[in-house]
Amino acid sequence: MKEKKVRAVEIQGEYGAVTVSERVLQKIWQRGDFRQERLRTLEGQRLAIRRRGRWNHYEGPDFREAELMLDGEKLEGDVEVHFYPQDWFLHGHDRDPGFDRVALHVCLFPPLNSKRPAVTSGGHWPPTLVLLDRLEQDLESYASEEALLALEKTEQLAALEVMLAARPEDRLAELRERAGRRWRQKAAFARQRLSRMEWDQACHLTALEVLGYRRNRAPMTALAGHYPPEEMRGRSAEELFSRMKGEWALTGLRPPNHPKRRLAQYLELLDKRPDWPQRLIEWGLEKRLHCRAGAETGVERRRGLSAARQVLAEDVLAGTVGGSRFDTLAVDAFLPLLAVKTGAELFAAWFHWWVGDMPDTLKDFLRQAEITGPGRPAANGWAQGGWQLLLESGL
């Protein structure tokens, strides 16, 4: 059977054009990485997803054998995923009998006109679901994760050749500039989140997302929606884990990253520090977080950033989360949220912070590009700049 071609488009993001593979959208659907409560199709029908279907990597619809509920009635069939509704016709699906069993057309963007978004060769009009306003992250963040996955599978990187061709000082300047784009992107998303929910709930949701990391973010997000902090307290990790049975991605997962263990850590935090979001605000105003962006990372850490990190771990989080996931919480959740909430300038602290969950291949890339090494410790800013470089390369 012939393997299907993976298409990519250039989408204008908030901080420039982003090359996004169609595989990104397919993974969003496959993982259920979008808000699924009170779904409605473009045609106004109530939609509930029982089974998202089996991912088809060959010719034909993207997902086979999905099970849906449409206005309360069971609906089985295939699912096709596109960037734009008109892609259905551009790709010739309206003339291909292989798409006659499509039960749902999933698109990132809404249609540009009133024309029906899809029709099969047999004359059936499958309903359309638009995902844009249901995403939990901006599209640039999803695309960045796809770039990381590509990096993990790529041995020869054109990006590395480009970096090594530049002078050492130009490489550093380039990654600093790209890290700044990443920071503005994260702050913009934090601002959007805080515009639609209270501080405590935003902290609750974002912390659970990060604890779920890439593979289990969606069910963690769903749990945060089902159980506000005061309702989650006192429940067991087993109960919460069972609430999302069938939604967890567990294959090949390292024991420390098992969602049941991460849930237990978060429940311990809620028990020991029920006021942790308020403590976080106080911590965010600490003078020791007032770093200088152009200074050396080692100097800023000795100057006070190391002490601030210890306070965050012990006083705010009560020692409940450690290792690289602790630092990922700081850079992906706490510092962007705090920058928006308090108005403090926290980019430099974010840049000099310790690296969180970073793939070994990205560490190797930064070393080979002579970004990190003797006298220049690995820092979050270099990692984030590297991620942005890979994202913009369209990997």
Automatic annotation (TrEMBL):
<protein>
    <submittedName>
        <fullName>DUF2851 family protein</fullName>
    </submittedName>
</protein>
<dbReference type="Pfam" id="PF11013">
    <property type="entry name" value="DUF2851"/>
</dbReference>
<dbReference type="InterPro" id="IPR021272">
    <property type="entry name" value="DUF2851"/>
</dbReference>
